[in-house]
Structure formats: C-alpha cells, structure tokens
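User: tokens in, sequence out, please.
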C-alpha cells in the first residue's frame, strides 16, 4: 500500500449524521489530491469508563503510523484525554504531521470553528433585527466555558442596546433536553413574564424550548422567538425550523487535508485555520414563514429512515441466526456466512482480522483467548473480500489482499472487534462517497448497528466453540478415566458399537478379550507412595494403548484391572498372545530405562469367541479373567511385592 499517500483519521461516533459532512469533506479533498483515507473509528466517545468503551478504544492501538503521511484527529469527538494524548504522541514519534479539528491541541495544526462571532451574530439578529427587549438565555452547564462565554456575549450585546439580562432569566439546561424542560417549568412557576425571545446555546435545548412553549399554549415565533446553535441533524425534523448557526464541517475537513498536503509539499502553513459558522435565518425567529409542505417532506424522509432501520435490523437478525448455525459446521462456513451478509450491503473491501486462536481453542478453555498476546504474530483472517470475490479463511501476519483493494478504493474504515472489554481483533471496510466512480456505500448511520451485531455474532461463535470443547471434554470424562483408557461405561458403549458394525457387515470375525492385571500395585503404593503408583498405572495403560489397533478397545475396569477387546479374523487366542507379547515388551523397555526402584509387570489371560447375535460379553470377560488369575497364581507374591532386582 506504500505506492499511495495515506491520511489517517481518528474519530468517534461516525454513525452520527452530524459528522457526515465533515467525513465527506475530508474524503472529497483527499481524493482530489490522490490520497487514500484510513479511518479509525470508535463507536463510543470514550467519556464513560465502561466495558464497551474499553473495547472500543483499542482500535486506536491499530493505527498504522508507518504508513501515514498525515493524521487528522476529530479531537472533540474523543473525550478521553489519555487516548487522545497517546495518538498525538505516537504520531509525533513517527514524524507524522497532525491536524486537529474542533479541539485545540498544542503542537498540532488546528482547524477551529469561530463559535464566538457566530453566536454574537445570532444575538445581534434577535436584538437588532427583531427588536427584542426581554430575553431569556438557555445556557449549558454552570461553569462550562462554552456556556459562560455565550451568556457573557448576550449580556454585552444587550448592554450595548441599553438592555439588561437579569440572573433569573438565565436557565441552565445542561446542553440537553430533560434539564432544559425542568428549567423551563421552574421559570414558568416564577413571577417573571414571558420574554420576547429565548436564545439557546445549542439546538437540542432550543427544540425542547419550542416544545415546552407549545405545551404552555404559546406559538413560535408569533408569541416568542427561539434561536438555537450548532445545526444538529435532528433540527431538520423540527417544526418550526430553527434559526441557528451550523458548523461548516465540510469546509473544516477540506482545510485539514489542505494543511497536510501543504506540509508535505514543504509550504509554511502556520498552525491555525478558523472557520465561520453558516448562519441560518429560519422559522423560529420569523425570518422565514413556516411551510407545512416542508414538514410533510421531512416526515416522509423520517419514515423512510425508520423503515430502512427496521429492514436493517431484520437482516441483522437473520445474519445472527445464520452465523450461529454455521459454527456447527466449522470456520469456513462461518466465514462464508459473514461474507454473504456483507455482500448484501456492498462493502467493496471487507476483512476480519482476529486472534490466531479465535477458533482453535486450547484445552484450558477458560484461557483460550485472553492470554494470547496480540504481538503481531500470525492472525486468523476469518474473512477477506475484494469487490465480491471472497477468500477462504487463512492465517497470516497481515491482510493479503488489501493492496489489491487499494488500487481502486480510497477509503478504508477500521473498527474494533471486541466482547465488551475483551478485544479479539479488528475489521476493515472499503467505502466510497461516490466521487471515485463507485456507487456510494458510505451510509455511516448503520455502521454502529452492523458492528454491534457482528461483535455479538462473533461472541456467540466464540461461546459455541468453547461450549463444544467443554461438552467434548465432559463426554470424554464420562467414558474415560485419567489414563486415557475407557472406563467400564465407555467400554460397554464402544464394544457394543463395534460388534453391531461387524454384524451389520455380515463378516466372519472373532472377539478376543484380554484380561490384564497389574502385579504389585499395592506394594508400589505402600512403599513409594501413590504418586509413583499413578506413574505405574499410567505406564501400564500407555503400553496397552500403544499396541491397540483400529478395531480394539483398551479399558481400565478399576484399580489395577484392565481389559483389551479386539476384533480379528483369525484365532482370537493367537491374536491375544501377540498383543500380550507386545505389551510385555513395552513394559520391559520402561523397566530397563526408567530408573524407577520398581518394575511394572502384569498377568494376562485371553479368551475369544466368534461374533454372533446375543453373544454374552460378560461371560467372555469372566473366562479371560479366570485364565488371568491362573497365571497370576503362578507369579508367587506378585501382588505383594515387585521390587527392582
């Protein structure tokens, strides 16, 4: 990907439509200069110290500083100073030119909005254009710089015109709806008359004031003027439309890219660009008459958005169901299902890079992911797709086909794949704003929905993989003991299936049962301890397993008693003798090389019959046991003492 110039963008909450123009402004200008964008987005502003935010912030550890020619930070969207400082610090260590939009960061080029002059223009418009004398100011938090500055602006301009803003006419709405509604109700209980205008420090509070005025029987703007500030997306659906000031986010994005390109070309740029807001004189101050046909159009837009959201949620529910079912079949099927639904939404490039052991769970299932360091070693690329061409899962240190995608895709969007605070990887999407010859697929409004569904689906995949491992372990414990041999329950289950298959195939075959008893186990336990006794038992079991074939079962019936059952097409007694000889040889090898102060030896008996319907397994075992005990009786004292000679 080094053939191109790459500009990184660090931000949060790209799904909020307020940031659409800003993101598109950056993308359009970058395309003009032939640059690619790598957008690293958190779906949390990281203000709250919760598990979701902990997982989200890890995307900023994925920034490819070695690839970047410049970095744009939407500083006001990332409300975690530690994360923000780390991004800036790492960029500087890599000699990357950093531009911050809407948050002043020392040592960076800053693109800032001229809030002061824009708010002042609104206040002057209310006082001078509409001749308002009595004004209520709806402020944000007490002590907040933005809020205090705007209250001071109102006071100053009113004083210029011989007017006074008394403290009782300052309502603190904390920049949000509910506090604004409470403050409005408290004002209505006071002795003060309705003002000529409510000047609100942001649109959210202005919308609430309009609603409360209607509730109390007042008309906007006929009875009272209301103004807002910021130009939020929700304002478009408010009647009356607000007189407000909108951030020129598109221009801010363009200026940020211009600063990076100027720096790369060696031009002196200074360190600051200030952008004026776009002033909108609309219904709520009376400068524009209310046209309810406009409202009808907006309601239609809102309906289509809601319908789209419902369809999206329905598709995502199908996605969840399909992927959960696919995990039963394996990793390839999971990959195919994820890509199938991804192709529905037309992402030109798509990849999921996960920890290497995401599907390969270790025996210690509780630690199967979280103890694996993310240190740049091989990763599981669960999915990768370029323009609808899907690749099967693979393991590698990086994405194999992203350079191919970069030939024609200009925007790569990165997000964190995590289960609450536990990060397991990251995802990449190839987007287009429609300016590069591709159909636009950058409706960022749904990205939060998509990633949350995806993270949830992958967690289910994870959980089911763990559950399968646990169930397999429990099933094994149910029919096996700690030596790895079948217990009695497992023996009868397996031998029944083997005999059933032989009868089904209608073959002439024999069942040989070898009864084996380890000599001297009590002596070993009493003399050298039970730990050494366990060594002896495991050694005996391993010797039995090492000589067993495809149609054979090794079982420990308890203590020092073992059974080998095998199917053969020859004399079962001869087959048993061969097995006993091989087992004895294995044990002799151990005794000669282990250095243990004891020998591991056994007594054996073998008996067999032709496989037939209704054959009595227990009777065959009893006959083999009898033969084994005859041999054991010849090993005088073998159950009491088997010392090394």
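Assistant: Sequence out:
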């Amino acid at each position: 990907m080094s053939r191109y110039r790459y500009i990184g963008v660090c931000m949060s909450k790209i799904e909020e439509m307020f940031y659409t123009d800003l993101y598109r402004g950056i993308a359009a200008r970058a395309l003009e200069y032939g640059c690619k964008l790598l957008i690293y987005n958190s779906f949390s502003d990281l203000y709250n110290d919760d598990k979701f935010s902990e997982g989200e912030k890890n995307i900023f550890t994925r920034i490819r500083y070695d690839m970047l020619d410049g970095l744009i930070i939407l500083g006001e969207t990332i409300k975690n100073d530690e994360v923000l400082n780390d991004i800036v610090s790492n960029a500087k260590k890599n000699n990357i030119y950093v531009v911050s939009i809407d948050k002043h960061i020392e040592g960076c080029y800053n693109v800032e909005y001229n809030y002061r002059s824009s708010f002042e223009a609104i206040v002057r418009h209310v006082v001078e254009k509409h001749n308002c004398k009595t004004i209520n100011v709806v402020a944000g938090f007490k002590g907040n710089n933005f809020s205090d500055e705007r209250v001071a602006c109102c006071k100053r301009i009113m004083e210029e015109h011989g007017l006074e803003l008394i403290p009782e006419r300052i309502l603190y709405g904390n920049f949000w709806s509910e506090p604004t509604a409470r403050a409005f109700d408290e004002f209505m209980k006071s002795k003060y008359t309705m003002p000529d205008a409510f000047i609100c420090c942001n649109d959210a509070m202005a919308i609430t004031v309009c609603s409360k005025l209607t509730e109390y029987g007042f008309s906007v703007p006929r009875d009272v003027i209301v103004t807002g500030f910021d130009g939020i997306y929700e304002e478009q659906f408010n009647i009356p439309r607000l007189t407000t000031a909108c951030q020129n986010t598109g221009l801010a994005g363009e200026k940020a890219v211009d600063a990076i390109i100027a720096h790369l070309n060696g031009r002196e740029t200074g360190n600051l660009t200030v952008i004026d807001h776009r002033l909108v004189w609309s219904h709520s101050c009376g400068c524009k008459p209310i046209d309810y046909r406009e409202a009808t159009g907006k309601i239609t837009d809102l309906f289509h958005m809601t319908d789209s959201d419902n369809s999206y949620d329905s598709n995502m529910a199908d996605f969840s169901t399909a992927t959960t079912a696919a995990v039963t079949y394996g990793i390839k099927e999971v990959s195919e299902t994820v890509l199938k639904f991804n192709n529905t939404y037309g992402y030109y490039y798509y990849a999921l890079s996960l920890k290497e052991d995401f599907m390969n769970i270790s025996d210690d299932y509780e630690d199967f992911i979280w103890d694996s360091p993310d240190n740049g070693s091989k990763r599981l690329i669960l999915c990768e797709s370029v323009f609808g061409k899907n690749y099967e899962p693979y393991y590698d240190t990086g994405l194999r086909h992203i350079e191919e995608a970069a030939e024609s895709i200009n925007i790569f969007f990165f997000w964190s794949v995590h289960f609450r605070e536990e990060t397991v990887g990251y995802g990449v999407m190839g987007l287009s704003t429609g300016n590069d010859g591709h159909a636009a697929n950058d409706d960022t409004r749904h990205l939060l929905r998509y990633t949350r569904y995806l993270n949830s689906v992958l967690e289910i995949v994870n959980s089911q993989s763990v559950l399968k491992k646990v169930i397999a372990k429990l099933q094994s414990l149910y029919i096996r003991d700690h030596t790895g041999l079948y217990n009695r329950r497992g023996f009868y289950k397996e031998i029944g299936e083997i005999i059933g298959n032989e009868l089904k195939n209608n073959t002439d075959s024999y069942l040989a049962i070898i009864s084996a008893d380890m000599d001297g186990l009590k002596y070993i336990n009493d003399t050298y301890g039970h730990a050494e006794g366990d060594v002896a038992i495991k050694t005996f079991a391993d010797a039995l397993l090492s000589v067993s074939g495809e149609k054979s079962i090794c079982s420990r019936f308890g203590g020092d008693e073992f059974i080998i059952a095998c199917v053969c097409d020859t004399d079962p007694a001869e087959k048993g003798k061969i097995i006993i000889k091989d087992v004895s040889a294995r044990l002799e090898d151990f005794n000669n090389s282990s250095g243990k102060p004891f020998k591991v030896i056994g007594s054996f008996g073998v008996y067999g019959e032709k496989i037939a319907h209704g054959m009595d397994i227990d009777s065959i075992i009893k006959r083999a046991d009898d033969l084994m005990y005859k041999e054991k009786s010849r090993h005088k004292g073998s159950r009491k003492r088997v010392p090394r000679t």
